What does this fold into?
Amino acid sequence: MDRQGFASPALDAKLLAGYGLGLTALDMALRENEPVEAGAAERIAGLMQRRLSGESVARIIGEREFYGLAFALNGATLEPRPETELLVDMALDALPQGGQLLDLGTGTGCIPIAVLVNRADASGVATDLSAEALVAAQGNAERHGVAERLVFLQGSWFEPLIENPHPSPPHKGEGTAPRVGLVAEIDHQTNSLLLVGRGGGSDAGFDLIVSNPPYINSAVIETLADEVKSFDPRLALDGGPDGLAPYRVIAAQARNWLKRGGRVLVEIGYDQGEAVTGLFEAAGFTDVTLHKDLNGLDRVVSAHHV
Ligand code: GLN
It folds into this structure.
């Protein structure tokens, strides 16, 4: 930390200067002794000023790396965090061959996109309350070449998923489903998902439901670092009065959308392990387990639907 509380001021300055000049890190190193034109210097000073006011480098540059991939951000998305990479690792392990996942509150789309980039056999659906966030997510899916296997729907948690009252026959080979391998059809008129399933019954639904929902207690948000509280969208942070509101919805409804044998993986705050495992156990899930991140903090709850 320097005097003003910046963890890596020299690196931040270098990144912002490179961005202001439109140069890659390599070009920055090769051309470091060249003079900078007045216009560019002014541009860089403006970027530095934003950083000094507490905005993160990622927000200023408009993207952040997650799971080795660059994700575009906008005003409605949280910055993907390195802690969330554990959820991706676990999702990659949990997803069966040809599996389908549902991501709730997708933000930049970082979780399902990272999964699908690493699993060409898999496909998925992602929802978010914010239409603006979904614009960023859709762009990120296209940029990383998974847009054909990932459908974005706008709405709260499970709301955009509507069970198909007249299920079509199970998807067999070509032609019946609009997207490769999806057991769902999209109703473009209502922007909702019609879950078709493979043969209906216990075999219908997703193999895996994942979420990194907003989980910060409303009152605690004010105490967070400026970088978070002033620049990350409230909607993406606020988990209600006790920070658990999204987990209640997910625990109560996830089994309606999971195949038998399917799993839920949710990211949690370091002090929410007991409360969130309790919610999933009370909702009838089995094998509810807590997983720690690289810092040794509780970070993911896994629950089975048998
Ligand atoms: N799922 C997204 C992420 O992990 C968004 C999370 C959120 O907005 N709370 O970055």
About this structure: Residues 78, 80, 84, 105-108, 110-111, 212-214, 236 surround glutamine (CB under 6 Å). Confidence is low (pLDDT under 50) at residues 164-183, 196-201. DSSP finds ten helices and twelve strands in the chain.
